[in-house]
C-alpha cells in the first residue's frame, strides 16, 4: 500500500513541487492538502485528484494521511506540527523559522505521543553535505562566517539552513574562535547576525533560489565551502527519501542526514 501524505502550504513554490512529486510516485499517495486561506475545498479548483481531501481549517480535518509534509509559513508550522503529532501523523517540516524552544517542545511531544518527526532545514543533498563538511572543517578552522543567499520573497532571515550550519560549526570546534576587542559597526548590523560566535549574513535578491557558502580563515590560509540549488526540483529527491524513511527514526530529529 502506498504511503498517504498530506501537504500543508500546497499552493506555495515548494508545496506545488511536493504535490507534483507525490502524484508521480506510485509508492506515495496525495491523500490531503491544507491551507488556511482557501475559499473552496473542491479539489478540482486546484487541479488535484478527486480523491484528495482539501482542508482550510485544522478543526475540520479528518484525514487518513500518515505523513504530514509542511511547507507553510513560520507562523503556522509549529501549530501544524503539534496537530500532526497529536492526531497520529508523522510531521516532516520543511518550513524554517522554528525557534529552539519550539523544536524542544515538538521533541517532547513526539516522545509523549510515541511518535516520530523530522525537521529538515534543507532537503538538498548538497546542502546536507555542506553542513557535514563545515562541521569537520571547524575542528581545524574555528573562525568561520556564513553567507546565505535566497530568493527575494523568502520571509525569514537568516535561513534555517544557515542557523543549522552555525550549530554544526559550533559543535565541531575544538577551540574557541578569535575575538575582536571592541568591534565597531559604523552601520548597525554590518557584521551580520551572530549565532554561537558564527556571523551569518543573509542576502535576499531576485533570481536566486537557495545558496550558501561558509568561509573559514586561519593563519595564512582560507577555506570556502559552497553549495547552490538552482531549482526547487533539486529538493524533491531529499523529500522523497524523508517521506519513505522517516519511520526509521526513534523520536523527533533535525536534519535530513538522520534518514539518509
UniProtKB/TrEMBL annotation:
PROSITE patterns: DAPB (PS01298). GO terms for biological process: diaminopimelate biosynthetic process; lysine biosynthetic process via diaminopimelate. It is found in: Cytoplasm. One of its GO terms (cellular component) is cytosol. Transmembrane segments: none annotated. The keyword Methyltransferase does not apply. SUPFAM superfamilies: Glyceraldehyde-3-phosphate dehydrogenase-like, C-terminal domain, NAD(P)-binding Rossmann-fold domains. Keywords: Amino-acid biosynthesis, Cytoplasm, Diaminopimelate biosynthesis, Lysine biosynthesis, NAD, NADP, Oxidoreductase. Belongs to the DapB family. This is 4-hydroxy-tetrahydrodipicolinate reductase.
Amino acid at each position: 500500500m502506498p504511503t498517504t501524505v498530506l501537504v500543508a502550504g500546497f499552493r506555495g513554490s515548494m508545496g506545488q513541487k511536493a504535490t507534483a512529486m507525490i502524484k508521480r510516485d506510485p509508492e506515495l499517495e496525495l491523500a490531503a492538502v491544507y491551507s488556511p486561506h482557501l475559499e473552496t475545498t473542491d479539489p478540482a479548483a486546484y487541479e488535484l485528484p478527486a480523491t484528495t481531501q482539501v482542508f482550510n481549517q485544522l478543526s475540520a480535518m479528518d484525514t487518513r494521511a500518515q505523513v504530514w509534509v509542511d511547507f507553510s509559513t513560520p507562523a503556522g508550522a509549529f501549530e501544524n506540527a503539534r496537530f500532526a503529532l497529536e492526531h497520529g501523523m508523522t510531521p516532516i517540516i520543511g518550513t524554517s523559522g522554528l525557534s529552539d524552544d519550539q523544536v524542544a517542545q515538538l521533541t517532547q511531544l513526539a516522545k509523549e505521543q510515541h511518535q516520530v518527526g523530522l525537521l529538515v532545514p534543507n532537503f538538498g543533498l548538497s546542502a546536507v553535505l555542506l553542513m557535514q563538511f563545515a562541521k569537520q572543517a571547524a575542528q581545524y578552522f574555528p573562525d568561520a562566517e556564513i553567507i546565505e543567499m535566497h530568493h527575494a520573497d523568502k520571509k525569514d532571515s537568516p535561513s534555517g539552513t544557515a542557523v543549522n550550519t552555525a550549530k554544526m560549526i559550533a559543535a565541531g570546534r575544538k577551540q574557541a574562535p578569535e575575538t575582536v576587542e571592541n568591534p565597531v559597526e559604523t552601520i548597525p548590523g554590518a557584521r551580520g547576525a551572530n549565532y554561537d560566535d558564527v556571523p551569518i549574513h543573509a542576502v535576499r535578491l531576485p533570481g536566486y533560489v537557495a545558496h550558501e557558502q561558509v568561509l573559514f580563515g586561519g593563519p595564512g590560509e582560507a577555506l570556502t565551502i559552497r553549495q547552490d540549488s538552482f531549482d526547487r526540483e533539486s529538493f524533491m529527491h531529499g523529500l522523497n527519501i524523508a517521506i519513505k524513511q522517516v519511520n526509521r527514526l526513534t523520536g523527533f530529529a533535525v536534519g535530513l542526514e538522520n534518514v539518509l
